[in-house]
Each structure stands twice: as C-alpha cells, then as structure tokens.
Design brief:
single chain, alpha/beta, Nucleotidyltransferase, domain 5, five-stranded mixed beta sheet
C-alpha cells in the first residue's frame, strides 16, 4: 500500500515532495508492502482511524504552537484554532498531547539578550521573526555612544502572503496548512532571530545556520530592552549636573557638577548624590544633566536629562541620580517633572550678577575730614545711619563701614585713612560720632582716591552695595597721589563690582574756570547716575533713598538652575 511518494504531498502534514518511505515532516508511512489482494475491511478501517488520528494530532500540535504553547499559551486562541483541525472535536487527552507535542525543539532555545548584547555598540541589523510578523530593527549609537534602536520596519504576515485572519495565518505558519512565504529582503550579514521554533513554514524557509532560535516570550527589541542590556556598557563621556556658582561679589558662573565619570557603567556606578542649594524664589528650577568631553563648557554639552523640580527656597537639598545606561541618567529623588524643552535658552537666563531676594545691604560711607564743612558732613552721615535704623525693615541685615580721609602730608607714601570696617549700624554711628575735623593742607584736592582704594578692597557681601562719598575737594590726579592710586581706575573697579555710588558735594569757594571744570567733572564721575547731590540742601531721607539702603531694592531675576551653595553673603 502506498499513500505518497516523491512528487506527491504528505496527506498528514501536507509536506510537498516528501522523500522516503516515511514523511520527514511528520513520520507518516508513505510507502509499504507489497501486499497481495485487496485490504480487508478491518485493515481499511484501522488505516482510516490511524490516518484520522495522525491528521488530528498534527493539526492540534500546529494549533498549540500557533496559540503560543509551550511558553505562554493563549487558551482562548487554542480553542479557536482547534476548529481548524481535521477530524472530530478533540478530547481533553488530545489537547494535552498537542501541548506536549509543541515542546519539540524547545530545549535548545536561546535568549534575545545573548544575541543582542554583543551588537549594542555596532550598527547591526536584526531580523525579528515573531507570531505577529517580521520586524527589521537597525541598531546603532549616537554621538555620545548611547546604543539604541535607530529604526524599525514591520511586516504583518498577511502582507507576506498569509491569510488576513490572524488565527489562520498562525495556523498555516505552524504547519496546519500549506503555505509559500514571500519573505522581505534584508541586508546581508543581518542577525536573524526566530521566535517561532518548530513552526514548519519558517523552519523550511530559513537557513538554520544563520538563525538564532529564541523563545516566543522573549522581550521585544526596543529602546527599553537596549537600555536594560546596556547596563554593563561603559559610557563614552562623563555626565554632570548644571549648577550656578555665585561668587561673593555676586558674579555668576555656570558650572557642571560631576555625577558619573567616563567609563562608568550602570551596573557598577548606579547612583550619585549631589547637594545643591535652592535659590530664594518660588519658581521651580531645572535639573539639567549634560554629557560631553572633559573641559567642554556647559552650553556645548549635550543634555541627557532635563526635569523641573520644586525645592524649598533658600535651603540645601540632596538630589539623587541613577545611571541607567551609557549617558542615560534619571532623577531618583526628589520628584521631578520631565521638561525636554526647558534646556533651550536656559543658560542665557543666568544673570551675570546675582542678588538675593531680600533687603540686606552693605554701605560704605567715605567722609572728608578737612575744613569747617566737616561738621555738616558728619551730621549728614549720622542722619543717614539713623535713617537706616529707623526705616529699614531689617536693619540688622545692613552692614556699614566708614572711611574717613585727611590730607596728605608731603609726597611720601602715607596712611591718610581712619577705617571702621563693616559692622552693625550702631558701631558705625559710634565711630562717626568720634571723628574730628583735620586741617586742609591742599585746597585743590583731597585723598578721595585713597578712600576709593579702601572701598574697593573691603570684603563686600553678595548683596546690594553702595558707596556714599561726602566731601568738597576732588581726588588727586594720579601723578600727584603719594600712594600712587588711580582714582578713575578705582571708579571703574567699583563699577565692575556692582557698587552703587552716591556723592554729596559741598562746593568750595569760587575758583578759576579750569579748576572748577575739573572739580565738577571729577565729582560727576564719582557718583551714579553722574549727578552729585548738593550738601547744602540734601536731607538724610533723600540720601538714604538715593543710596538704596532702605531695603526697597526689589526682587532679583529668577535663576533657572540650582546653586552650588547658599549665598552666605560672605566677603569676596
């Protein structure tokens, strides 16, 4: 008896052109005998029953594979697929046998991780064959060396010649129906993953020497999987947090606080903690983590994590970061909101100088001791100190220094200053009250330049700063100062240090036009905005207002990033 042979189709598994006495696909006997005479009725019935069992067993095994067994079978799909099987409705024993049969070729299954991990830093192409279709995935790295999925193209099975119905397409792939696959072309050297081990249509089509057989329940190849597999990949560049460093003179510098160095891996260096200071503002700040080569300015590095966070103002906070992959960082705590667009222009929002959101101030009073007009200057200086104590919302936050200058005696370098360095308002008042007038030795000039030099050298805090000069005579030209101070350079230095300047000028007696012009120009340059106040009419309240020492300086610009430390208003 013969039920098939070369040039035919196996009646059980429908394999085309089976060769041999037994079908290489299912083992059905294709050729036997010879026997003499016609088969008996009993033999015919026995053959029919065996053939029915073989067909049903083959189809049910294909249905079990198509339903996802043995890894993660879908019982509802399996029950639907059994309707496509030949023969009577299967019994429970038939279904159990079908699931057991689906374990064929499962012992040697690999994992996606084993295949993909060596490819992470290459421009590999991976062909992922699954029950839902074929996906061609292009892997690659960006300029920071971060591996990821660069592109993915997917084909559904019905677009490759299989039935539109998903159940029937799966059933055909698993061997339940004959099918000719029209697979898409992929690049030579592509890595092929077959998640459908034992599915005959694929086993017959694919070259087994170039295929990695993995479990159907292995994770999909996407950015999340690549990131998970990249935990052992060293990062090409170091990463750090963008912060603002405020110097004692208020100057700001955008810096990068290192988090994870070059060569770090997520497996070996999972977390880093940085202490930052929140500016005294209600607005949230940006936690910007950037990556790039050492020495690269912050604005030229690549942002790899940008989130906004609300921090209690004017306090220090610990911020915890986690390295999840090469140049891939996330904020662990505190809670932060993703803000991918916030980096653009953020560094440009950092002011060149920063002033706290409070009314603290440093005031320097420079007073000329020479001549009878000293009494009026002393009275005005004392009234200014009283105005601060009376009108400032927090007078204890104001520091006052006093510089009293007397005339040079000869051409040799000498000390012409009586100095009371920064201290409380009451201390300054006592010092001012003890001052006494000194003789005028040079009617043309006074050592204002020495007072300017001392003012520029004082330990100012990073708060509102003001220099008030009360005098009559202009500074000495550089060539006439025994101590060699250049008053115009010192004015520019104070300007750079953001020291607000106010001059109160008691005009001397009438002089020649050239001397008067020089005196007026010098006193105008000493003040800002280039209009000195007249000592014969200015009141203490007006002087305090012009000097901006009553705590009404207003808020500062909002800072986009946290600070390296709290502004302690320390001397520079």
């Amino acid at each position: 008896m013969s039920t098939g042979g070369t040039g035919t189709t196996c009646p059980v598994c429908l394999l085309a052109d089976p060769v041999g006495t037994h079908c290489p696909g299912c083992g059905w006997v294709l050729s036997a005998g010879p026997w003499a005479g016609a088969p008996s009725r009993a033999r015919a019935e026995s053959f029919a029953a065996a053939f029915e069992r073989a067909c049903r067993g083959w189809d049910l095994a294909a249905a079990a594979l198509a339903a996802g067994y043995p890894e993660a079978g879908d019982l509802a799909r399996f029950e639907r697929l059994t309707g496509l099987a030949r023969g009577p409705r299967p019994e429970r024993a038939d279904l159990v046998a079908a699931v057991e049969a689906s374990t064929v070729k499962r012992k040697a299954l690999g994992t996606v991780a084993e295949v993909i991990t060596p490819l992470l830093l290459s421009d590999a192409v991976v062909v992922d064959i699954a029950a839902s279709g074929i996906t061609v995935v292009h892997l690659g790295t960006d300029h920071l060396g971060r591996p990821g999925v660069r592109s993915a193209q997917r084909w559904c099975w019905h677009s490759l010649g299989l039935p539109d119905d998903d159940d029937r397409a799966r059933f055909a792939l698993a061997g339940g129906e004959p099918v000719v696959l029209d697979l898409p072309r992929w690049p030579d050297g592509a890595v092929v993953l077959n998640r459908l081990a034992g599915w005959r249509a694929l086993d017959e089509t694919l070259d087994p020497s170039g295929v990695h057989v993995v479990g159907a329940d292995e994770p999909a190849i996407d950015d999340a999987l690549v990131l998970e597999l990249a935990k052992d990949v060293p990062q090409r560049h170091g990463s750090g947090l963008v912060l603002i460093d405020v110097a004692a003179d208020g100057r700001t510098t955008v810096v990068v606080q290192p988090l994870f160095p070059q060569g770090a891996t997520a497996a070996d260096s999972p977390e880093a903690v940085v202490r930052v200071a929140a500016p005294p503002q209600d607005e949230p700040v940006l936690l910007a983590v950037v990556a790039g080569s050492a020495g690269t300015p912050p604005w030229r590095r690549t942002p790899i994590s940008t989130t906004t966070v609300e921090l209690a103002p004017d306090r220090e906070h610990a911020v915890r970061f986690r390295l999840t992959g090469p140049c891939t960082v996330e904020v662990v705590e505190p809670d932060a909101e993703p803000a991918p667009a916030a980096w653009t222009g953020a560094i440009d929002q950092v002011p060149a100088r920063y002033r706290r959101h409070d009314s603290a101030a440093d005031l320097v009073v420079a007073v000329e001791l020479g001549g009878s007009a000293f009494a009026r200057r002393q009275e005005l200086a004392l009234a200014l100190v009283d105005a601060i104590e009376r009108g400032h919302p927090a007078p204890a936050s104001v520091r006052v220094a006093v510089l009293a200058y007397s005339d040079h005696k000869g051409r040799m370098p000498q000390q012409v200053l009586a100095v009371r360095e920064f201290g409380g308002v009451a201390t300054a008042r006592d010092f001012l009250d003890d001052l006494r007038a000194t003789p005028v030795l040079d009617p043309r000039a006074a050592p204002v330049e020495d007072a300017l030099w001392a003012a520029a050298s004082l330990p100012w805090r990073s708060v509102a700063r003001t220099l008030v000069v009360l005098g009559s005579r202009p500074p000495h030209p550089t060539e006439h100062c025994p101590n060699g101070h250049r008053w115009d350079d010192l004015v520019r230095r104070l300007e750079r240090d953001d020291v607000h300047r106010v001059a109160v000028w008691d005009q001397p007696e009438r002089r020649d036009p050239e001397s008067a012009e020089w005196t007026t120009a010098a006193w105008s340059a000493l003040t800002r905005p280039h209009t000195p106040l007249r000592a014969d009419w200015v009141a203490a309240d007006r002087l305090a207002a012009d000097a901006r020492v009553l705590g009404r300086t207003g808020p500062t610009a909002t800072l986009p990033f946290p600070l390296t430390r709290l502004p302690q208003e320390e001397p520079r």
